[in-house]
Amino acid sequence: MQTAKNRIIETSRRDFKVNKLLFVITNLVLFMNFIMQMSIRKFITHYIESETNYYEGYAIAYVCIAAIALCAVFTVFTLFRELFSKPHADLAYSLPVGAKERFFSKLLTLLKLHILPVIFWNIIQFISTIITTDLSLKILSRYAAVLFLTELSTCLFVDLVVILCLVCCGRLAEVIYTAVIITACEAILPRCIVLSSISIFSTRGSDDIEIITDKWFAWSAFPAYLMDNGYSNALVLMLMGSSLLSAALICLLYFIYKKRDGRATGKPFVFTAFREIVLILGIVTVTTYVLSDPDNIVLLPVVLLSYLLIRIFSAKSTLTIAKFVKWIAVFAVYMIMIFAFNFISYLCDGFAGKPDLSVLTDYDDVWVWVQTDEDIMTYTSSYKNPEGRKTLTKEQAEQLTDIYIKALDSREKSFSDYIDCLKNRNLAGNFASITLYTRNSDDIYSDNNSIIDVIDIDVRLTKNSTEQVAEEIKALDFISPEQISYLETKEYYD
Question: What is the pTM of this model?
Answer without folding.
Answer: 0.86
